[in-house]
Specification:
Elements (H helix, E strand, L loop, with lengths): L1 H25 L7 E4 L12 E6 L2 E8 L2 E7 L4 E5 L2 H12 L2 E8 L3 H4 L8 E6 L5 E10 L5 E6 L4 E6 L3 H4 L19 E5 L2 E5 L8 E7 L6 E7 L2 E4 L9 H12 L5 E3 L8 E7 L4 E6 L8 E5 L5 E4 L1 H7 L12
Length: 332
């Protein structure tokens, strides 16, 4: 009985010491208080014109021009601007400008390595202003102990904070996370978007309802046909016979205008095998040209009005380049 009681007391003492050790690590002596604050003052957003993210994928550079953000890709000869999802950039600034609770964990140079926010350990987010000076230079470290928080530290400072992880989504993602890979973003309807108090006006053409004619040249053959809008219906050139499926044509036009690539290419296709051209009621026209498939069944595509080269997977290609018979209504 005595030995059992001693064993129980010793076990209790060990548990207490273990708990004290864990708490001494979590509740660092520099952990003074928790308070909400923002890393970046939202009033400075109009000055922001460049963001550099140093993370798992190396350096990602976002550049702002005419109130629109682009990703800068360094090719062999020059820097190329690639379109990005504007809403994704807004999400990044929302995370930086939002006043969220932060806890001070340490206030010493030695704490940097222990909490993963030293210059050579942490990811980094730098926001530059109009004069090229940093509006924010923030190190983002690893996850905090016992919770889903992340450690952060301003460049040149020793204060190390923890808070809910809203930043590693951006530091741990590659360029494709930012890309806007829609083939015809300007044809999806008119809109006026406000980017943190700055109006960004973009003139966009009409959608599928404004298409008056579509011409399809199928790859690998001389087959070519046209779809012509006639009142509330359609006619199809080419072989006679069959009634056009108006609903099917409208659905195909919608899927064409909403189509997305899987990546950008940085050289045009070696040859053009197929094309789709659209004519709109306002007199404008757009086209897409595709090259032959590569060994992975991916095709390079050129879209008129831009110098970008898109990469289409085979399933997207097959969904867009339909045989003429696809648009003939079946009565069975």
């Amino acid at each position: 009985m005595i030995h059992k009681k001693k064993r129980t007391i010793l076990t209790l003492i060990l548990v207490i010491f273990a708990l004290i050790y864990v708490l001494s690590f979590v509740f660092d002596s520099g952990r003074i208080h928790s308070r909400p604050f923002a890393w970046l003052d939202s009033s400075h957003l109009n000055l922001a014109n460049r963001v550099e993210i140093h993370g798992l994928w190396g350096r990602t550079i976002l550049n702002r021009r005419n109130n629109v953000w682009f990703l800068l890709h360094e090719s062999e000869e020059h820097w190329q601007e690639l379109p990005v999802k504007q809403a994704r950039v807004e999400e990044l600034f929302t995370s930086l400008c939002g006043k969220y609770p932060h806890v001070l964990h340490a206030n010493s140079f030695e704490g940097r390595s222990r909490l993963g926010v030293s210059d050579d350990q942490a990811s980094r987010i730098i926001v530059y202003g109009g004069a090229g000076l940093p509006l924010l230079d923030l190190f983002v470290g690893g996850a905090a102990l016992l919770d889903r928080n992340v450690y952060t530290r301003l460049s040149g400072r020793n204060e190390i904070y923890s808070g809910e992880d809203r930043l590693t989504l951006f530091t741990d993602s590659g360029p494709a996370f930012w890309y806007d890979l829609r083939l015809f973003p300007q044809l999806l309807g008119s809109q006026e978007r406000v980017f943190f108090g700055t109006a960004a006006h973009t003139h966009l053409g009409g959608g599928a309802s404004q298409v008056q004619q579509a011409e399809v040249k199928l790859p690998g053959s001389d087959d070519r046909y046209a779809l012509l809008r006639l009142g509330a219906g359609w006619i199809i050139t080419g072989e006679e016979g069959g009634t056009p499926d108006a609903n099917g044509i409208e659905a195909w036009l919608g899927s064409l205008l909403e189509a997305e690539a899987v990546d950008f290419a940085f050289s045009p296709p070696a040859s053009v095998e197929g094309s789709i051209s659209l004519w709109f009621g306002d007199g404008t026209d757009m086209s897409i040209q595709v090259g032959p498939p590569d060994v992975e069944n991916l095709r390079s595509a050129l879209v008129s009005g831009t110098n970008l080269v898109y990469i289409l997977p085979e399933w997207t290609f097959e969904r867009l380049f339909r045989e003429r018979d696809y648009f003939i209504r079946s009565d069975f």
